[in-house]
Amino acid sequence: MNGPRPGRLWVVAGTGTDVGKTWSACALAREVRARGLVVAARKPAQSFDPAAAGAGGGELDADLLARATGELPEQVCRPGRCYEVAMAPPMAAAALGRPPVRLADLVDELAWPPGTDVGLVEQAGGLGSPQAEDGDGVDMVAALRPDGVLLVSRPGLGALGDIGLARRALSATGAGTGRFVVLLNRFERSDPVQVANLRWLAAHGAQAFTTVSDVAAHLLGASPGGVAGGAAPEG
Q: Whose CB has fewer CB within 10 Å in the chain, the N or C terminal residue?
């Protein structure tokens, strides 16, 4: 990485696409800032549908993360790493005829302002999605060796399988990822399956939460861990 490593480095990963990773990363950044800490977010590469973005269909991930951290979008994601095709970044680069995306380059390009207390790296797609020609989200975690990983998951049927595979894959890297935290995003306490999933995770040694504020407290060391209550908003 360029420049000093943040005091704490966390990776925000997902069990798949559209589970609320960016919303969760933005909410986590705001929680950290509210505690008086300096936070910066990085999206090593992002791809998008330009027609949807141009039609008022929403801001890019880097725009949202920049607003949450007080940075500029080009600091969050380098302009050269923005790919105007809705595919995984290495696939989008190939479709656009741009140079191949290499994992080492993505890691080396990460630059953090001096004095950053918490650095957040949001991956593209799911944990198993290609981040580069030569690596997926698990490989990126192994290369970054973060202090913690926040895995954002859907809360209902099928979530335990997704989370279990993610935990096993990360454990196999031997990267010493420190704290592994699960956020059951869009959690509804009225849903018995979601409640059962939360209890199962707690009973089997996972640090599982349903609100970003509880995730922040845990990752910052203000909580002994365990299961937290409350329903996370839509993300």
A: N
Is position 21 annotated as part of the catalytic site? no
Strands 135-136 and 130-132 turn out to be antiparallel
Strand intervals (E) in the chain: 8-14, 39-42, 46-47, 82-83, 118-122, 130-132, 135-136, 148-153, 179-184, 207-209
CA distance 156 to 10: 25
Closest CA to 61 of 102, 21, 30: 21
Q: How many domains does the chain have?
A: 1
Could you report the per-residue pLDDT of 6-33, keeping only the tens digit for each? 999 999 999 999 999 999 999 999 999 9
Residue of 8, 21, 42, 43 marked catalytic: 43
Q: Is residue 224 part of a domain?
A: no
Q: What is the CATH number of the domain that holds 198?
A: 3.40.50.300
The answer to whether the CB of 157 falls within 8 A of the CB of 78 is no
Domain range for 52 is 8-219
**Residue 205: exposure state from Cβ atoms within 10 A (0-12, 13-18, ≥19):** exposed
Is residue 188 one of the residues assigned to a domain? yes
Q: Evaluate whether residue 2 is within a structural domain.
A: no
Q: Write out the two tokens for 12.
A: 């925000």
Inter-residue contact 86 to 57 (CB < 8 Å) = no
Residue 102 covered by a domain: yes
DSSP state of 232: P
